[in-house]
C-alpha cells in the first residue's frame, strides 16, 4: 500500500485554513469578552493543532512561527499575560501570516516575498515581548550552546504502532522527524520481531516499533504531544532515564551482535515499557475528547467535484425516470405503472438526499465578515457593531462560495457611505456606535439575505441628479424611489465626492448585481433618509434541480418554479374578455396584473378555447401568467442556455422532458421586472406590480 502524502497534505491545508478561521472568530470573541476562557482555549488548540500537523509534514517555517504564537497563547491561558487590544491585533496579524505560510505550501514551490519575510521578522519580535524571558532569549539562537546541553535530559521512548496506521493515512517516520525537531535522537532501534511470516504478510498492515533514546530540553508533556495525532493508533511510553541510563545504554550497544536476542518486552519490563508486538487500541475510551473524536468520525470529507458529478448523474436519473413513467402510462399496464411509480418515488428521495449533501449553512460565510468589519471600522475611525442572524440558513454550496465577494463589497459600501462618523451620529441624535446587520431567511422557495445599516440613508435627489448628468435618466422622467435607488447598480455610477481605499471609484456595485444575476438572483434596496438602508438579495436554494410546474402554450411547454406558484384558476368567458381589455384580473377583490405568455413569446395562431391563470409571487411582486394548459408538477433538471440564447430575458434555462422534448424554464423575477419596465415606459408614470397587487 502506498500512502498518498500529497492527498494527506492537501487535507492538512484545508483543515489548517478552517482552524485559522475558527481561531480568528475566537480572537474576535475574546476581544469583546477578555475573560472568556473557552475562547482562549479554542485559540490555543487551533494553533497547537496546526503546529503539530505541520510538523508531521516537515513544514519547518510553519512549525517555527506557530511555536512562538503557541508560547504566547500558553502564557495567556495560564494568566501570565492579560488580554488587551494590542495583543489581539498582534495575534490576528499572526494568524494572517500563518495563512500566508499555508498558502505557500498550497502553491507548491513558491517562496515568501521579501515583504512577507519582513512582516514575519516584525511579528516574531513583537511576539517575543509576550513570551517568558527565558523563551524569548532562546528564540534567536539556532545552534546548541553549553548551557542548552546542560539543561537537557535523556529520555527513553518505547513506541509501537498499530496495524491500521497505514490504512489511516499515517506515516510513522513523519512522527520521528517531528520528534527530532525537539531535540536529538541519540539512538533509534527498530523493533521488527512482530513482523509475520511471508504467508501471513499483509503489506497494508504496520508491524513497526521503535526504541528511542532521546536527548531534549523539552518536558514530558511536549514530547508526548508529538504523538497526539496518532494516539488512537499507537502505544507509547516515555520515561526519563536516571544518571546510570547512559552507561547502561552504552553497555547494551557494545554487546556482541551474535549474543542471544533479548526481546524488547523483557528489556523494558522493569521500566513499564509497552508490551511486545503491534499496539492494540483500547476499546474503553470514555473521555470527553475521545467521545468528541468519535462524533467527528461520523463525518467524511468529500471532494466538491464528486458531489457535482453525483448531482449530474441524479439529474440524468430524474430525466430517465420521467421517460419510464411516461412509457408506463402509455401501456395501460397496472403492475408496470405501479412499479414505475415506486421507482419515481425512490428517485425523488435520492434527489432530495443528493441536494441536501450540497446544502451548507451560510453562517460560516457570515462569520468571516466579523474581521472585515473590525478592520474597516478601525481604518475609517468608526465604531461599528456587526449583528448576525439566520446563520443556520442553508443553501447550495456553489451559491455560498460565489456570494462572498458581493456581500463583502456591500458591507464595505455600507460602512464607508452608509454609517456616519460618531460626531455626525451624535449630532443627529443617534448613538455613537453604528450597527450593521446580516440576516438570512427562506421565503417562497428562495433565500433572502439582508444587509442593513442604521446610517444616513441614500440621498434620493443626489442620485437622480447624478443619473441625469450621466444620461441614465431623461430630464423630467418620473421614477419611483426604488427605481431611483436601484440606479446605483448602473456601471460606473457613484455619488462619492472622494476616492478612498474602499469605494468612490464608480466600480463594484454593477459587478455585485451582475454576479448575483449570474446566480439567478435579484438585488434591490430600500432606504429611509436618516434611518438607514436595507439591501435585499434573493437567491435560489439550488442551481441544479428544482420542482417545476409545467404549462403549455400551443405545442410549446414552459416550466414555472413550483415554489413561486400560489394557485391556478380557470378564466371563464366573461373574465377572459374583461381581463384582456383591462390587463388585470379581479381576484377576490385583489387587483392582479396579467401577463399573456402567448403574446409575450410571440406565439402565432388564435388563443385556445380554454385559458388558465397561474398566480405567481416573487418577493413583494405578484402577477398572473395566462397560459393554455396546466400540465402538472415536474422534477426539473436545469440545463444552461447556450451562448446564442444567453441574453434571452424571461428565460433562465431549459430542461428535458420525459418524452425527450425540450421545455424552457421561466425566469419569473426577470419576467415581472420586464413587464414593469414596459408598462412604465408606455405610461411614463410610476408603476409597480407590487403596488398594483396590493
From TrEMBL:
SMART domains linked to this entry: CheW, H-kinase_dim, HATPase_c, HPT
One BP term from GO: chemotaxis
GO terms for cellular component: cytoplasm
Keyword ATP-binding: yes
Coiled-coil residues: none
GO terms of molecular function: ATP binding; phosphorelay sensor kinase activity
Enzyme Commission number: 2.7.13.3
Disordered: annotated span: 272-296
Residues annotated as domain CheW-like: 545-677
Keyword tags: ATP-binding, Chemotaxis, Kinase, Nucleotide-binding, Phosphoprotein, Transferase, Two-component regulatory system
Domain Histidine kinase: 336-543
Domain of life: Bacteria
Modified-residue entries (Phosphohistidine), positions: 48
Enzyme class, broadest EC rank: transferase
Positions with biased composition (Polar residues): 280-291
Reaction(s) this enzyme catalyzes, per UniProt: ATP + protein L-histidine = ADP + protein N-phospho-L-histidine
Sequence ranges assigned to domain HPt in this UniProt record: 1-105
Known function: Involved in the transmission of sensory signals from the chemoreceptors to the flagellar motors. CheA is autophosphorylated; it can transfer its phosphate group to either CheB or CheY.
Protein known as: Chemotaxis protein CheA
Amino acid at each position: 500500500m502506498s500512502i498518498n502524502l500529497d492527498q494527506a497534505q492537501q487535507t492538512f491545508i484545508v483543515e489548517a485554513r478552517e482552524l485559522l478561521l475558527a481561531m480568528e472568530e475566537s480572537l474576535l470573541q475574546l476581544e469583546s469578552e477578555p475573560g472568556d476562557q473557552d475562547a482562549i482555549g479554542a485559540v490555543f488548540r487551533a494553533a497547537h493543532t496546526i503546529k503539530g500537523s505541520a510538523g508531521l509534514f516537515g513544514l519547518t517555517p510553519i512549525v517555527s512561527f506557530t511555536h512562538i504564537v503557541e508560547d504566547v497563547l500558553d502564557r495567556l491561558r495560564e494568566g501570565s499575560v492579560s488580554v488587551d487590544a494590542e495583543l489581539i491585533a498582534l495575534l490576528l496579524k499572526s494568524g494572517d501570516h500563518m495563512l500566508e505560510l499555508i498558502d505557500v505550501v498550497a502553491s507548491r514551490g513558491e517562496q515568501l516575498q521579501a515583504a512577507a519575510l519582513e512582516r514575519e521578522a516584525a511579528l516574531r519580535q513583537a511576539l517575543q515581548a509576550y513570551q517568558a524571558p527565558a523563551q524569548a532569549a532562546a528564540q534567536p539562537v539556532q545552534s546548541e550552546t553549553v548551557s542548552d546541553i546542560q539543561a537537557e535530559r535523556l529520555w527513553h521512548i518505547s513506541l509501537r504502532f498499530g496495524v491500521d496506521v497505514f490504512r489511516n493515512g499515517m506515516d510513522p517516520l513523519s512522527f520521528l522527524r517531528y520528534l527530532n525537531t525537539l531535540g536529538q535522537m541519540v539512538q533509534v532501534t527498530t523493533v521488527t520481531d512482530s513482523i509475520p511470516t511471508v504467508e501471513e504478510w499483509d503489506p497494508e498492515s504496520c508491524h513497526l516499533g521503535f526504541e528511542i533514546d532521546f536527548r531534549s530540553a523539552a518536558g514530558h508533556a511536549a514530547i508526548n504531544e508529538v504523538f497526539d495525532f496518532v494516539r488512537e493508533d499507537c502505544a507509547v511510553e516515555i520515561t526519563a532515564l536516571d544518571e546510570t541510563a547512559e552507561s547502561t545504554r552504552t553497555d547494551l550497544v557494545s554487546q556482541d551482535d551474535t549474543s542471544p536476542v533479548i526481546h524488547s518486552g523483557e528489556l523494558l519490563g522493569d521500566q513499564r515499557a509497552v508490551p511486545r508486538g503491534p499496539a492494540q487500541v483500547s476499546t474503553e475510551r470514555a473521555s470527553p475528547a475521545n467521545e468528541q473524536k468519535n462524533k467527528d468520525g461520523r463525518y467524511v470529507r468529500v471532494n466538491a467535484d464528486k458531489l457535482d458529478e453525483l448531482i449530474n448523474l441524479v439529474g440524468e436519473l430524474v430525466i430517465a425516470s420521467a421517460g419510464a413513467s411516461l412509457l408506463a402510462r402509455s401501456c395501460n399496464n397496472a403492475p408496470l405503472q405501479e412499479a414505475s411509480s415506486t421507482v419515481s418515488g425512490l428517485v425523488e428521495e435520492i434527489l432530495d438526499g443528493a441536494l441536501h449533501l450540497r446544502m451548507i449553512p451560510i453562517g460560516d460565510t457570515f462569520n468571516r465578515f466579523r474581521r472585515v468589519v473590525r478592520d474597516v471600522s478601525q481604518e475609517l475611525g468608526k465604531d461599528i457593531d456587526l449583528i448576525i442572524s439566520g446563520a443556520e440558513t442553508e443553501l447550495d454550496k456553489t451559491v455560498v462560495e460565489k456570494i462572498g465577494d458581493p456581500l463583502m463589497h456591500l458591507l464595505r459600501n455600507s460602512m464607508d457611505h452608509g454609517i456616519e462618523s460618531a460626531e455626525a451620529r451624535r449630532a443627529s441624535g443617534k448613538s455613537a456606535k453604528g450597527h450593521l446587520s446580516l440576516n438570512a431567511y427562506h421565503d417562497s422557495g428562495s433565500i433572502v439575505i439582508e444587509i442593513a445599516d442604521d446610517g444616513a440613508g441614500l440621498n434620493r435627489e443626489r442620485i437622480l441628479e447624478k443619473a441625469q448628468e450621466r444620461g441614465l435618466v431623461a430630464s423630467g422622467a418620473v421614477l419611483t424611489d426604488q427605481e431611483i435607488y436601484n440606479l446605483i447598480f448602473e456601471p460606473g455610477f457613484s455619488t462619492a465626492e472622494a476616492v478612498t481605499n474602499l469605494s468612490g471609484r464608480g466600480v463594484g456595485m454593477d459587478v455585485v448585481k451582475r454576479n448575483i444575476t449570474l446566480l439567478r438572483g435579484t438585488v434591490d434596496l430600500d432606504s429611509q433618509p436618516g434611518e438607514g438602508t436595507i439591501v435585499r438579495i434573493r437567491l435560489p436554494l439550488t442551481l441544479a434541480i428544482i420542482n417545476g410546474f409545467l404549462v403549455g402554450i400551443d405545442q410549446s411547454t414552459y416550466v414555472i418554479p413550483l415554489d413561486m406558484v400560489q394557485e391556478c384558476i380557470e378564466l371563464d368567458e366573461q373574465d377572459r374578455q374583461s381581463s384582456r381589455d383591462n390587463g388585470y384580473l379581479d381576484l377576490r377583490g385583489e387587483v392582479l396584473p396579467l401577463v399573456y405568455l402567448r403574446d409575450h413569446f410571440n406565439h402565432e395562431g388564435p388563443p385556445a378555447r380554454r385559458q388558465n391563470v397561474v398566480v405567481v409571487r416573487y418577493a413583494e411582486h405578484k402577477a398572473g401568467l395566462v397560459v393554455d394548459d396546466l400540465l402538472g408538477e415536474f422534477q426539473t433538471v436545469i440545463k444552461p442556455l447556450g451562448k446564442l440564447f444567453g441574453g434571452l430575458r424571461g428565460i433562465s434555462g431549459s430542461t428535458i422532458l420525459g418524452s425527450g422534448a425540450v421545455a424552457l424554464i421561466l425566469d419569473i423575477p426577470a419576467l415581472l421586472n420586464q413587464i414593469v419596465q414596459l408598462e412604465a415606459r408606455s405610461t411614463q408614470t410610476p408603476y409597480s406590480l407590487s403596488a398594483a397587487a396590493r
